[in-house]
Amino acid sequence: MAQASLGEQLCTQGPAFAVPAALAFYRALRVYPTPVELIMLYQTSLPPEVFAIILELTNMDVKERAEGYYDFFPSKSWNVRVQDKDGKKVLFADKDFEKGDVVYKEYPIISALDWDLLEQGSHCVYCLKLVHKVSEYRPENDRLNTVYCSKDCYTKAKQQYHGILFTLDPLLPPEMAAESGAASPEEREKAQAALVEYLKSNQKLANFLVAKWVALQITIETSKVVPGAVHPDKDLPKYIEDDAPEYAIGDHLERLRYLDASVTPEETEVLRKVFGAALPGLEGSLTEDRHVTTLGKMLYNAIGICYSGGRDDKPQLAERPEDQERTRTPYGTSRQIGSGLFLVSSYIQHSCDPSVRPSFPGGTNKLCLMATRAIKEGEELTMAYVDVTQHEGESAEEARRRRRHELARGWRFKCECTRCLAEQTEGSVEVDLGVTADESKIEDAAARFEAKKAEAEAPETD
């Protein structure tokens, strides 16, 4: 807000101040939650010479960060790299591993506890650790009645997303908030109560992850314009080295695959009102289209968090199988305690004969990727998205049919891994899975970046 005001003041001083004005507007653009909308506003309201400089600065920045993204993500310390295979970006080993080796460890950028456990107060809603009564931390006047294993976990959650979603704490210091004309505490409380009711009635973790994700984006960008503010991203996973180009968390999400999803205008409005009540203008952080795409990414990429073999007391909602929420976990979603978005692990493709397995040996949401067999450098890493074991009383053909049905319902693809092909017998009946091809997608912007890079790298022909 301050940079935009500075730009307006400089514009009034004439063409000689076009460059400093453009720089101020550009800095405002870098922290604005929906930059495309702000660019459109600039185009209609700013002098042409100022707008032209802003566009040039934006294009230079986008080109540098977009075209070389996978040269930097993830950094070499992860021991893996992202490469193309069959039209997808997938994860490959960057060194040899033996069976039982830890390939890497990864914290989720966001996670959510299963709703029944949240209501029980049995686990920390930030790190998903089992909470002991003697050490639990319960914040006062908490709208969700959440429990944390420590005050440190609560502080991190509050700085990253909890504060804007479920408390009345101001997003900006008083002097800056006064300029923005913030909504009344009553309006904000009403908006948050509607969000809690929506999450409770729905109980889909993907919706909770979307709310946390958008809130995290807002708090990170807002902290950049508040002098002396605590930066919420200081506690997030480190994906890229310090000397690499700067990437926002939105740059990472933009490149992930997603599934078609659906939300109603009313669902989007519930979230928009929470953000707008926290700070007028922030409702623009979430459009209905962006809501749909972000939800589709959570549905496709979320990994189920299971430790100690998972649990067997997860309530089953009265839903059709095709409507059930699924997360990637070899134990089966019914055994998870929650789910999270792990940005590096999102690039691991499924196989019914996987080379790696996500493990949570510390009893928290920290993922340890374990090699299930020897892996050579340059080999693709694969994990099981579903329970691929053959259950007692189940034939090999029945087990194959079960897991392929679950994969088709949860991730919209027909599994044709080596194991599925090997177990297909001459007498087996191929049932209709409802999918004929992989229905996951990437965003248009990411597709254009990759197409331009491929064109530039293609050998010249006579």
| Helix coverage percent | 40-55%
Q: Averaging pLDDT over every residue, what do you get? A: 89
Secondary-structure element pattern, one letter each: HHHHHEEEEHHHHHHHHEEEEEEHHH
Beta strand %? 5-15%
Explain what this protein looks like in three dimensions.
The chain is mainly α and 462 residues long. Among the domains are: 66 residues, no CATH class; 194 residues, no CATH class. The chain is 42% helix and 9% strand. It is built from 16 helices and ten strands. The protein has a three-stranded antiparallel β-sheet with strand order 3-9-8, with no helix packed on it. Strands 4-6-5 form a three-stranded antiparallel β-sheet. It has a two-stranded antiparallel sheet with strand order 1-2.
SSE topology sketch:
Blueprint: H1 2-11, H2 18-31, H3 35-45, H4 48-67, H5 69-72, E1 80-85, E2 88-93, E3 102-106, E4 110-113, H6 115-120, H7 151-166, H8 174-180, H9 185-202, H10 205-223, H11 249-254, H12 265-278, H13 288-301, E5 303-305, E6 338-341, E7 349-350, E8 356-359, E9 367-371, E10 382-383, H14 396-411, H15 418-422, H16 444-457
